[in-house]
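User: For documentation purposes, I need each entry recorded in a consistent format: the amino acid sequence on its own, followed directly by the corresponding structure tokens. There are two entries in this batch. Please keep commentary to a minimum and don't merge the entries.

Assistant: Recorded as requested. Entry 1:
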Amino acid sequence: MKYIISYKKPHNHYIDIEFIVDKINQDELLIQLPAWRPGRYELGNFAKNIQKWTAFDIVGNSLISEKIKKDCWKIQTKGISEIHIKYNYYAAEINAGSTFLDSTQLYMNPVNCCVYIPNRINEACELIVQLSSDYNVAIGLERKLSTSDNTHTFLANNFHELADSPFIASNTLQHSLFVCAGVTFNLWFQGICKPDWTKLRSDFTKFVNEQMAMMKAFPAKQYHFLFQILPYKTYHGVEHITSTVIALGPGYSLMHNNLYEDLLGVSSHELFHAWNIKTIRPIEMQPYDYTKENYSKLGYVCEGLTTYYGDYLLFRSGVFNQEQYFKTFDERLQKHFDNFGRFNLSVAESSFDTWLDGYNPGIPNRKTSIYDEGCLLAFITDIFIRKNSNNKYSLDDVMRYLYTEFALKNKGYAAEDYKGIVEHFANTSYDNVFNNYINKAADYEVVLKDALAYIGCKLSKSTSAKAYEHALGIKIALINNACKVIAVYPNSVADIAGVSINDELLSVNNMQIKSEGTISNFADWCNYFVNADSSKDNIPLHLIVSSQGIVKTIEIQPNVNAYYKIFGIKKSNSVDEAKKNNFENWSKNKF
């Protein structure tokens, strides 16, 4: 089977694809386009990007074809030994999991746009890409020698490998590499940016070495970090076995402060996925079924453990200092405590429901995040194992066991397998965490505090500096220059008074709310009218809001310091030697 990729007018964003299949020995053939892409557990419906479709035999005679599902075609092949399918794909969206074409690059995720034959999915195939002679290609597939400067040919053992091999083709790719434990790691940057190669190689080598040392073996002979650097603010990564695509921006901030920390964080996260989800997989995804939802409740392992290790291994390797790591932990804590969906849908149930409402927040307070909740539960589980084994074992051992006893044996794991492995290394029952916090919607502040205490740390709470958060119980954001309510604390004074999500705030105590850029004066007026020292001295606030196009006045009596606390992790003031040793054993850093 062969895929020939070409294009004529890159500014129109249409990629031309020819799919050639021989050795046909059946009267009808089904041609399938994936309905989703691994790494994002929601339907993608990529077929909506196909404009033209034709099927013909080896000499050019048209074949009868019929679309029988939204992304599946049936072709009449009686007496036909070879077919050619030509179609085009509209590629105008650029993120870490999309396909994109313009005058500067061809960027393709084959899982978006390459069709396959379901009953021949395990057959080898060739990817032939026709490009300008000055283009280079960054890809994880094996390269076949070509006699033409314009044609690049790559080999895949099966459709799964092809689907998992994104590439960037361009004449402006910037490249460097380093070697860890015999594996070559490539850094590719596409877009306007100035990579500091010395700093990048130094930091990447540290966290890559830490991951390799932890897992003992790597699932690929080489690995490619494919960076799409964009001129605007963005943050997105998608994992593959031999590569990751990471979209970041703006390019002018790439090597500076927060964006560089984001680059390190997402790179560490996506690399860990080469083990966790790309090779260590839930039984429901071994192998992937590209035609429909692959339901699983194990998102707290697939994404939660990866989120935990992505930042934690940066700390453990010395790339992040304590302040940088604690900042990432604080972000997880804040998202957890600000999300009241934690009382309604467990992280296991929320994993299952990514297929229902994707990665959007959904209706208010319904679900939790498999990333943030899963991360905190991974930390709790790591400490649970360490505490019960006197620091002999940890979550590291669980991951290594899953890799050697499941992934390397092409076995998927079930939730009970994960639970049993944790119990094996902890040598005690995991029922409390597994039943009451992973599979049940509940407040786990108590077990979180206990886990932090084991390493000499504590959960800190403080009052938000924003009066509308701590005294009214709302959160706001500027949306199209309008100051809108984006969250309401359940049973807060704002909630009781009738404030709703999506209400636009027009005035407070007759003072007009003005918004400019990313700034609104609503916060300043609230801070002015609310006495943060005493609820007794506060007069009611009169808000004028636009709710579903209806303007109304709402009276609210502030309740100072009652809502939306600021959460964080801090070292305890008085810590014994045992807890200091626990911290150092866990973090590989001095207490």
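Entry 2:
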Amino acid sequence: MFYTGCGIVAIAITSSYKGIIRYTGLQDGVRIITMVFLNAVLVSIGNLIFFYNGQGNMVPYSVIVISFLSASLILFNYRLLVKYIFSFYRNAIFKKQRVLIFGAGQTGIVTRHVIDSSPRTQTVGFLENDRNKIGKVLDGAKIYDASFKELEFLIKELSADEIIITIKDLALDVKNELVDICIRNQVKVRMIPPVEKWVRGELSINQIKEVNIEDLLGRESIKLDNPSVQHELQGKKVLITGAAGSIGSELVRQVIRFNPELLILIDQAESDLYEIEREIRQAESWTKIVLYLADITNKDRVEAIFRAHTPDTVFHAAAYKHVPMMESNPVEAVLCNILGTKLLADLSVQYGVRKFVMISTDKAVNPTNVMGCSKRIAEIYVQSLNNHVSSTGGKTSFVTTRFGNVLGSNGSVIPLFKKQIQVGGPVTVTHPEVTRYFMTIPEACQLVLEAGTMGKGGEIFIFDMGSAIKISDLAKKMIYLSGFEPHKDIEIVYTGLREGEKLYEELLNNFEDTLPTHHKKIMIAKVKEHAYDEVNRYVDLFHDLVYDANELKMVALMKELVPEYKSNYSRYEILDQRN
């Protein structure tokens, strides 16, 4: 009775009874040993009390030692036995997903414990490229060769249903090859988030995310010359147009890190401007932020902003960019992309802006649509104005950046495909052979900042975009990554090229070449230069045409200034036939 009473007290103190048996782990073992040890201590204290009162020992010390060892062993093994029986019973009921973990490091071990704690998944092995680890056993699971020659056979041999990538900086070409193998073998691919994004520092099964197409299309980030960018922006007054858009908002995020004195944000999208304001107000920066809800074609409004703040640097990201929409509304393309750019550029000269960086597009090269041609005319005007200003002793330098589609931007094809897949399809692609270049939004904005730093004036910077991607292949991969099969679960429908679209994009036209820069991924396009007086005369003519109902006349003027502009799948093809 005395021994039992001490045991009850020890159990109550340590709360060893509260552990859920089927989840028994190391902490439960420690709690059991603590409880048994405390019980032995209490019995020993009772023995001493009785002994000094002349009544001898209540319990022999040999019994206390034997009880401590046997109770520790039996209680802990009992819990492990119950846990094993429960696990065996659970496995018999549920069919488990067999998982291979790519990466046999510390993060891989954590992932293995998370996987095996789920009733529906089990780890069947690790994948590793490190030859020193291959063939060994880690935490009870074998480490296999992750080379792609072996992987396809290994997936079949182990009947793997899923591969989870745990390596943080896995090379993009390796990641793409891995995903392609998994798609061919109908194996699911997931990734764990970076450690810093784990909830309360712990990984859970719900945090393991699907591989997104964005994870496969990006490239190694540009390494910025941060001291130069810092010198260019720190303590300066920076104006960003289109600051609430995809590119503009990312520019805001990156520029504010360099602590400019003043950040002036202009956009006509009220809700989006409000959202970016809320975000950057939380950034730890002493930069003063001023927001203007304004249209860049409103001369009085924009001039008032320049007069009030006299910015040092202007990043011009505001533009209309949707090809079919501008093909139907050429007046708006001319107003915003051409006349809006001219207004900002002229005001930059008038108010002594030191650097004007314009964001252009690959659609300005050999344009086949109104939008692309309007951006090419904006490029021509900015470049000719730079030459004019430099020849007359002005201090404003104008540079242009030209790049392809950005992943996840408003209206881009990837968000559209995601929505179509979510509702069960069909996924619409314009043409089986259409190709596009892609880059991430942060990459694009890093290019813009680098151009703003290295540009001396008059350059058009282009970016090494890598290889063009076939949009039909992109659609198929997105469907596979979403857990479906193209043409079986989700249809792909070809709708035909839209007005002004072409099958492929170009970064240079037939008469352009490139010059290298200090960065291997950034080049300068050698383009035909135009006399400022001639270009300005053309652009002034657009002022007279924007309110004219004759759209053909306006587009004809665009073709006259940009002779390589040949309309495609457009009602303006009639103008090319006349020429």
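Summary note for entry 2:
The first helix runs from residue 2 to 14.
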